[in-house]
Amino acid sequence: MRVLVASSEIVPFAKTGGLADVTGALPKALRRIGVEADCILPFYRCVDRDRFPLKGPGRAIRVPLGHRDEAGSVEETDAGDGVRAFLVRNDRYFGREFLYGTKDGDYIDNCERFTFFCRGVMEWILRSGFRYDILHCNDWQTALIPVYMKTLYAGHEPFRETGTVFTVHNLGYQGLFWNHDLPLTGLGWDLFTPRGLEFYGKLNLMKGGLVFADVLSTVSATYSREIQTPEYGYGLEGVLYERRDDLYGIVNGIDDKEWHPATDRRIAARYSAEDLSGKADCRRDLLAEFGFPADDVPILGLIGRLTAQKGFDLVEQIGEWLAGQRVRVIILGAGERKYEEAMEELGTRYPDRIAIRIAYDDALAHKIEAGVDMYLMPSLYEPCGLNQIYSMKYGTVPVVRATGGLADTVVDADADPEGGTGFIFRRYDAEDLKDAVSRALAAFPDRPRWEAIVRRGMALDFSWEASAREYLRLYERALRKRGRKG
Ligand code: ADP
Questions:
Q1: For 103-107, what is the mean pLDDT?
Q2: Which atom of ligand 1 is least distant from the CA of 169?
Q3: So what's the pLDDT on residue 300?
Q4: Is residue 402 within 8 Å of 429, Cβ to Cβ?
Q5: What is the mean pLDDT of the chain?
Q6: Residue 367: pLDDT band with limits 50, 70, 90
Q7: Å from CA of 188 to ligand 1 middle
Q8: Using a 6 Å CB cutoff, which residues line ligand 1?
Q9: Domains of the chain, with CATH numbers?
Q10: pLDDT for the residue 333
Q11: String of b and e for 106-143 (b: at least 16 CB within 10 Å)?
Q12: What is the pLDDT of residues 74-92, one digit of tens each?
């Protein structure tokens, strides 16, 4: 089986969030179980050309965009572990400082940029001789690919037997554009209806993927159910409900090469569930990094995009309360200006309690996961969430809201004393959050109990192997829908 994973961000080339972790690790895990997987993404400026030398000259492509053709190329490099990475190049679109936009908003030509990417993928396959059984598309930036498969490119020889899988990593970002962008895509107005890509008068690219892909998935079982309801569906709940028989939930694995405390070179010392002494070194190292004294006051960490999704409104609401508890808080994040300012203000008001670093810093993210005692994830919604999983791997106890993948991966230690791995609250509410944090703080001094919670989390298996096998079953399902045995 040959699979092409298409994504707007893929580790180790470009990353703003969990999408890149997943689409980086999945092709490698697929290769390990015998699937010939490659990946394709835009050739951004941030792609490190010294680390990833290009193989030979790229292949030129011409991509129809509205009434004109836009030139570009597809370059090849090595993603590691036998995975070929293809980079769709057009420096005007992708040779920019950021992937999607600046702090002040999205790039205004995002529809054009990702239409170029999607149609570029189709044109490249058409002309290059590469053949894939499955195109696995991820989030709105790649959602036009399944649409093209069933419309403009339907019946073209290289695509005749190709199945499409579309995975929703975050329904909060749908690729919504004004209807005047439709002609750019080359698609006809007949598709601009509520059964197609229209969404209350606008063009909704995510919806195209949801309507046209053979099989749909999202990144946890709970989220796959939640998005069929108005609370989480962001207006697409009806489409998702209609396609519920084709919709699956597969929880993300984590990449052990990147995230494992026994081998991680970014942290002060290595450790394991058998010998946690290295974690104490990491803890001291982190306290020193933030100028805190090396004592036993519990440390609560939080890393993430500073957006409403990640629950920063709740963090802001409980900030003063938190500063009055016996706890230290370390926050690493970058994102929306209003949350950056709110978090910085907390840090300024309570400097001996709360430390904020506004940055995107991968090495520091590793140090925090290893160095803190507990990790906060009060998300408004969370398709899968990776940091709670990294936390458990690193012997850090997650405090999470029971939503999406958080509900599927963390077990409350008070409700289930024998199996608990963290602390959970249900309602998106400051009082409920305080209660969960209080329960974690109360449990912390009881060392035998705390270490049992820590060890249970560390023992969980979140390797990619199991998830990759589930994806393989989805690919087989998609091929059956295309009339192939699979
Ligand atoms: P999402 O994809 O919604 O952002 P996830 O929990 O699935 O959330 O994945 C987030 C990923 O991005 C994790 O690997 C996390 O460590 C990383 N990350 C987010 N913000 C930062 C930051 N400011 N610095 C370093 N890493 C970050």
A1: 89
A2: 2
A3: 98
A4: no
A5: 97
A6: very high
A7: 38
A8: 17-19, 21, 303-305, 332-334, 360-362, 365, 384-387
A9: 2-253+465-481 (3.40.50.2000), 277-461 (3.40.50.2000)
A10: 97
A11: eeeebbbbbbbbbbbbbbbbeeeebebbbbbbbbbbbb
A12: 999 999 999 999 999 999 9
User: Is residue 340 helix, strand or coil?
Assistant: helix
290: β partners: none
Number of residues written out for the chain: 486
Average pLDDT over residues 417-439: 98
CB neighbour list of residue 486: distance below 8 Å, 6 or more residues apart: 475, 476, 477, 478, 479, 480
* Residue whose structure tokens are 């409350």: 412
Contacts of 81 (CB under 8 A, 6+ apart): 28, 31, 32
Confidence of residue 256 (pLDDT cuts 50, 70, 90): confident
Residues paired with residue 305 on neighbouring β-strands, in sequence order: 334
**Residue 188 neighbours by CB distance under 10 Å:** 12
φ, ψ (nearest 5 deg) of residue 347: -65, -35
Structure tokens at 290: 């933030």
- Which token pair is 119? 């149609």
CA distance 245 to 326: 49
Residue with tokens 């579309």: 166
